TrEMBL record:
<keyword id="KW-1133">Transmembrane helix</keyword>
<keyword id="KW-0812">Transmembrane</keyword>
<keyword id="KW-0472">Membrane</keyword>
<dbReference type="GO" id="GO:0006457">
    <property type="term" value="P:protein folding"/>
</dbReference>
<dbReference type="GO" id="GO:0005783">
    <property type="term" value="C:endoplasmic reticulum"/>
</dbReference>
<dbReference type="InterPro" id="IPR013766">
    <property type="entry name" value="Thioredoxin_domain"/>
</dbReference>
<keyword id="KW-0732">Signal</keyword>
<feature type="compositionally biased region" description="Basic and acidic residues">
    <location>
        <begin position="429"/>
        <end position="441"/>
    </location>
</feature>
<dbReference type="InterPro" id="IPR036249">
    <property type="entry name" value="Thioredoxin-like_sf"/>
</dbReference>
<feature type="domain" description="Thioredoxin">
    <location>
        <begin position="29"/>
        <end position="154"/>
    </location>
</feature>
<feature type="region of interest" description="Disordered">
    <location>
        <begin position="416"/>
        <end position="441"/>
    </location>
</feature>
<keyword id="KW-1015">Disulfide bond</keyword>
<dbReference type="Pfam" id="PF00085">
    <property type="entry name" value="Thioredoxin"/>
</dbReference>
<protein>
    <recommendedName>
        <fullName>Thioredoxin domain-containing protein</fullName>
    </recommendedName>
</protein>
<dbReference type="GO" id="GO:0034976">
    <property type="term" value="P:response to endoplasmic reticulum stress"/>
</dbReference>
<keyword id="KW-0676">Redox-active center</keyword>
<feature type="transmembrane region" description="Helical">
    <location>
        <begin position="21"/>
        <end position="45"/>
    </location>
</feature>
Length: 441
């Protein structure tokens, strides 16, 4: 039987246990609270590409405001070619006023991370802006990659005070993105558009400029918004009205050149395109007669800005051209109107372009389309998004077929077990499903 003294002693011990538990819980709370800080401290902006793993990927992404991540596989040849370019770009980007960190992770080994960000082709690049990922489709050579990434940390609207500032801005911007230069305009007039289209174009307002600049950019009054597409040597001037609707329409129309050449890289630009695409299919886009036709198409595009005009050569991009029912025996050039996905339209008796008076034939095609004298067709093969992701298409099909087969097998086994309830269920030999080794870059 316990004495009063024993009971008091037990109470004291219990209090100590409770206090000790409280202290331990508090210490655990403090410990786990500072873990992210301790982990983050392991990363430094030192101009080197950071090698990440499954365990520290999320911490790295949350540590830095701007991170370019290379999701690679050790066996991938293109990944090996890209690696030295990233090594060369990393120290330059680390020295920016707002540094950009380059990191990489073996997404074939660390599948949790790879699956989370839907990585199925290698290398895949993504830019993480304050932890939010966006696909990177820009150049992959070190010098132009640096110029491209500077866009993500640049001001939404650059303020230019002189002719020299304008010249430096255009040179630094490079040729990959279009530019919109406002002359005699207040920054607030385009600030919302600059934020909205920050990933697709440069924006600036010139507060000080000379008559020489006006002559150079071919505008004769202010306010004026000048769009430049250096890659395609194109310039367009907008004099207003400067309300939101008309201003944004001008910006949207000039994010693309008048007539876009379709290839595996430019095809990616069509992801966000809302207009129907007037697509001209030629045999060889490098031939002189094709180049002359492109000039005619540009003139038509200038008068029909509600459509995006584009062209593609069968010899340059056969896989894409053949989805429109074109073969080596087809008579080209030919025009279609494409919705950017699975459907396209031919114009009855007007889709073929001869060698004589091509300007009239292009006009006749457009008139026929607008009047509805069309035939709707489906592209042969995958949809646009599937085609664009053709590197992963076959893998995805294999995975889906495999999953369906496994589900059918499980269902069959389950049904058999129900039919023969007295037979004890056999346990299959366990085994790990082997990952296919024949991956595509």
């Amino acid at each position: 039987m316990k004495t009063e003294r024993d009971m008091k002693k037990q109470i004291v011990i219990s209090d100590k246990v409770v206090n000790m538990s409280t202290i331990l819980c508090f210490n655990f709370f403090i410990f786990f609270s500072i873990i992210p800080t301790l982990v983050s401290a392991n990363f430094a902006i030192d101009g080197k590409v950071i090698e990440l793993e499954d365990s520290n990927f999320d911490s790295a992404i949350s540590t830095f405001d701007f991170v370019l991540v290379d999701f690679y596989a050790p066996w991938c040849g293109h990944c090996k070619s890209l690696s030295p370019e990233l090594d060369a770009a990393a120290p330059v980007l680390a020295q920016l006023k707002k540094p950009i960190v380059i990191a990489k992770i073996d997404a074939d080994k660390y599948r949790r991370v790879g699956d989370k960000y839907e990585i199925d082709g290698f290398p895949t690049l993504k830019v993480f802006l304050h932890g939010v990922p966006t696909d990177y489709y820009g150049p992959r050579k070190a010098d132009v990659l640096v110029r491209f990434l500077k866009k993500f940390v640049a001001p939404d609207v650059a303020s230019l005070e002189s002719d020299g500032d304008i010249s430096n801005f255009v040179e630094e911007a490079g040729t990959f993105f279009p530019m919109f230069l406002g002359f005699g305009m207040n920054e607030s007039m385009i600030s919302e558009l600059a934020i909205k289209y920050k990933k697709r174009a440069w924006f600036a307002v010139a507060k000080g400029f000379s008559d020489t600049v006006m002559d150079l950019y071919d505008f004769d009054k202010v306010p004026a918004l000048v769009s430049l597409h250096p890659t395609y040597d194109e310039r367009n001037i907008f004099y207003g009205p400067f309300d939101d609707q008309f201003l944004e329409e001008f910006v949207k129309q000039n994010l693309m050149p008048l007539c876009l050449p379709i290839n595996p890289e430019t095809l990616k630009l069509l992801r966000d395109e809302e207009r129907k695409i007037v697509l001209t299919l030629v045999d060889d886009s490098q031939e002189e007669k094709s180049k002359q036709l492109v000039k005619i198409l540009k003139a038509a595009a200038s008068a029909n800005r509600d459509y995006l005009f584009a062209y593609v050569g069968l010899q340059q991009f056969p896989d894409f051209v053949e989805t429109f029912g074109i073969s080596k025996s087809s008579e080209l050039p030919k025009m279609v109107v494409w919705d950017g996905n699975e459907e396209y339209f031919t114009v009855i008796d007007a889709d073929r372009i001869g060698e004589d008076d091509q300007g009239s034939e292009v006009s006749r095609f457009l008139e026929g389309y607008k009047e509805g004298r069309t035939v709707s067709k489906k592209i042969n093969g995958p949809s646009f998004m599937q085609f664009l992701n053709s590197m992963i298409g076959f893998k995805l099909i294999i995975i889906v077929v495999f999953v369906v087969a496994v589900m059918m097998l499980i269902q069959t086994v389950g049904n058999n077990e129900e039919d023969v309830p007295r037979r004890p269920p056999s346990r299959p030999d366990s085994g790990e499903v082997e990952r296919p080794a024949d991956k595509e870059d």
